[in-house]
Design a protein that fits this description.
Elements (H helix, E strand, L loop, with lengths): L1 E6 L4 E8 L5 E9 L6 H19 L3 E5 L7 H20 L4 E4 L1 H9 L6 H11 L9 H19 L2
């Protein structure tokens, strides 16, 4: 099974394609960046277009995405929610099933603790995948954590 993990954002969206073998294998890793000087509609269009290309190129069996949460900055939450909507629509258009995980579920699955700091989660991603270092950039490492969360959830599903 191929899982496309997504850490959504308007300026930077992390993505990771993970093959759920034993051990899981990273097939692709990176970020989609939009130009913060362009208007929001153009940026969302760019994000959707780039995600459609990723879906066509990698043909994942499922897209796993981190759910939007409201922390302190409402403006950030709104832009992430907009980006997530575009991502969900692109997956639906490609016929790719989507599963969503809360940030605490991702942290618990990867690091064993739902309130684990971001750095600990990223170190555990590297360790669990047998990588020499934490994947860069951070948004790509976060996308790997989402994909790992899904592969783990599938491994324990009845």
């Amino acid at each position: 099974m191929f899982v496309l993990g997504i850490d959504p954002g308007l300026t930077t969206t992390g993505y990771a394609v993970l093959r759920s073998s034993r051990p899981p294998q990273v097939d692709a890793l990176g970020v989609i960046r939009t130009d913060r000087h362009r208007d929001t509609a153009a940026r969302l269009h760019e994000l959707g277009r780039d995600l459609e290309m990723l879906l066509r190129e990698h043909r994942p069996d499922v897209l796993a995405i981190e759910q939007v949460f409201v922390n302190r900055n409402l403006q950030t939450a709104i832009s992430v929610a907009r980006a997530s909507g575009v991502i969900l629509a692109a997956a639906a258009a490609a016929g790719c099933p989507v599963v969503e995980y809360t940030p605490s579920a991702v942290k618990a699955a990867v690091a064993g603790y739902g309130n684990a700091p971001k750095e600990q989660v990223q170190r555990m991603v590297a360790r669990r995948l047998g990588l020499d270092s934490v994947p860069k950039p951070a948004d790509a490492a976060d996308a790997l954590a989402v994909a790992l969360c899904h592969t783990q959830a599938m491994a324990v599903a009845p």
